[in-house]
Give the backbone structure.
Amino acid sequence: MRESGRTHVELDHEGTGRESLAPDSSHLVRACALRPEDPIIDVGEARSSPVLAWLAAGHRDITVLDDSLDALEALRERLGRGAGAVTLIHAKVLDFRPHRRYALWHDRGVFHHLVHPDDRQLYVEVVQQALRPEGSLVVTTFGPEGPEEFRGAPVVRYNARTLQPEFGSQFELEEHSLGMYRLTSGEGHQVLSCRFRRHAPRWPAVA
């Protein structure tokens, strides 16, 4: 397991009028060594999704999942002609039933909102259904010195040692870093970004 250097992250507001947890996880995505045709799914923050950067880097199979229809429509407008290369899914993560497998599951701020253990277990089951054997999982949560609440709701704070057991023995933590999420007000919150590799036996694709 490798610990990356500390990073300083500024909020990119994207003109949406809504603050979102959107740290730069590009170094973790690059470390996944994905091919252009490998399918990627980004969950939970369509308003600030890195999908445009992924398209510019040559990725051709991208899915964005969000429970906000407005956020998805705003992303569709941002994509312009590139919208044809991106699948937009309107659903809650815990309700998502994948019909294919992805090489990368990318989450920038959903998991730490799951304060009930049953919800976290359901989230892990969804990831297991969606992710290929030997696929990559990139997750950003609030760090151990982060806030106890965000957007008026409680959150769970993690360090690398407490986050890894949440995903179980199938997932090996390969890299993590602590950074600072900067609000437009100037307030900063500590965030933890982790890259996991899944180790699991192969089974038939989801029908």
Notes: Residues 2-198 form a domain with the Rossmann fold fold (CATH 3.40.50.150). Residues 5-20 have pLDDT under 50 and may be disordered. Helices lie at 26-31, 51-56, 69-79, 117-130, 160-167. Residues 178 and 192 are 5 Å apart (CA to CA).
